[in-house]
TrEMBL record:
It is an enzyme of class 3 (hydrolase). It is found in: Cell membrane; Cytoplasm. Belongs to the GTP-binding SRP family. FtsY subfamily. CDD domains: FtsY (cd17874). GO terms for biological process: SRP-dependent cotranslational protein targeting to membrane. Keywords: Cell membrane, Cytoplasm, GTP-binding, Hydrolase, Membrane, Nucleotide-binding, Receptor. HAMAP family: FtsY. Its EC number is 3.6.5.4. Gene3D superfamilies: P-loop containing nucleotide triphosphate hydrolases, Signal recognition particle SRP54, nucleotide-binding domain. Involved in targeting and insertion of nascent membrane proteins into the cytoplasmic membrane. Acts as a receptor for the complex formed by the signal recognition particle (SRP) and the ribosome-nascent chain (RNC). It catalyses: GTP + H2O = GDP + phosphate + H(+). This is Signal recognition particle receptor FtsY.
């Protein structure tokens, strides 16, 4: 299957729930239509705040009173929420991508897939194993570096994560590498310790790569739904997240979380992941996503 087919398949659960309900209510009187649409959106993990925003936008549109135009108007509103595609800022090189997220969100796997994506786009990539608190994380990243055919900077388990990032920054400058992608820890003994460590890594990157773009991508597990938003707020406050990668957007996830994340955080969704393969990460395309969500 091509990417669009796979996206449609991954959203099948949400689409079946939403389009089936829409098909039944699209011609209903306004009060019933809005009530049923509200239930369908919340069940699809769009979230209460985002659902209310959508309903307000619909009620303000005169053309939404026409049952024949309701789906088209809904599509416009969803696209307006998601905004324009937001590609990574990678120029001028060397660029850095700091990968953030709690353990289990799919962060290290996403790094490997992102490295592969960038390499197939013609970029050279170096990975930094800065999650030194888990030996397993270093070994896992080494496997992905081999799969994506990227260089890797690693220290011994327990080493200073900022020192790993420092050495990686020197390496990309010395070797003329386009993109540095740094893994980070997802959990320390306390949330405060974790955030202070991330701030330190961020300072090292901005100091050692002056004038270079630094993306701070937060990897969220789509299957956790609204809990992902609470996680995102903490990371955003600490290091200024620049974009979201929504991992595990497969049949077990409720696709509406993409809309909830965008509304709650005001951050662009830059990539979505649908599986475990090297090619299972793609730039987020809002029109493609909305069509896959609404088209039966």
């Amino acid at each position: 299957m091509n990417w669009l087919d796979r996206l449609r398949e991954s959203l099948a659960r949400t689409r079946a729930q939403l389009t089936a309900r829409l098909g039944e209510i699209v011609g209903a009187p306004p009060a019933e239509f809005f009530q049923q649409l509200e239930a369908a959106l919340i069940e699809g993990d769009v979230g209460v705040a985002t659902t209310q925003h959508i309903l307000r936008q619909l009620s303000d549109r005169r053309d939404a009173r026409d049952p024949a135009a309701r789906l088209a108007v809904l599509r416009e509103i969803l696209l307006d929420i998601l905004g324009a595609p937001a590609p990574l800022r990678l120029d001028p090189p060397p660029a850095a991508v700091l990968m953030l997220g709690v353990n289990g969100a799919g962060k290290t796997t996403t790094i490997g897939k992102l490295a592969h994506h960038l390499k197939t786009s013609g970029r050279t990539v170096l990975l930094a194993a800065a999650d030194t608190f888990r030996a397993g994380a270093i070994d896992q990243l080494a496997i992905w570096a081999q799969r994506a055919e990227c260089e890797l900077v690693r220290h011994a388990p327990g080493a200073d994560p900022a020192a790993v990032v420092y050495d990686a920054a020197q390496a990309v400058k010395a070797r003329g590498i386009d993109v540095l992608i740094a893994d980070t820890a997802g959990r320390l003994h306390t949330k405060t310790n974790l955030m202070e460590e991330l701030k330190k890594i961020n300072r090292v990157l901005t100091r050692e790569l002056p004038g270079s773009p630094v993306e701070r991508l937060l990897v969220l597990d789509a299957t956790t739904g609204q809990n992902a938003i609470a996680q995102a707020r903490v990371f955003t406050e600490a290091v200024g997240v620049t974009g979201i990668v929504l991992a595990k957007l497969d049949g077990s996830a409720k696709g509406g979380v993409v809309l909830a994340v965008r509304t709650a955080l005001g951050l662009p969704v830059k990539f979505v992941g649908l599986g475990e393969g090297l090619d299972d990460l793609q730039p987020f395309d809002p029109p493609q996503f909305v069509d896959a969500l609404l088209t039966a």
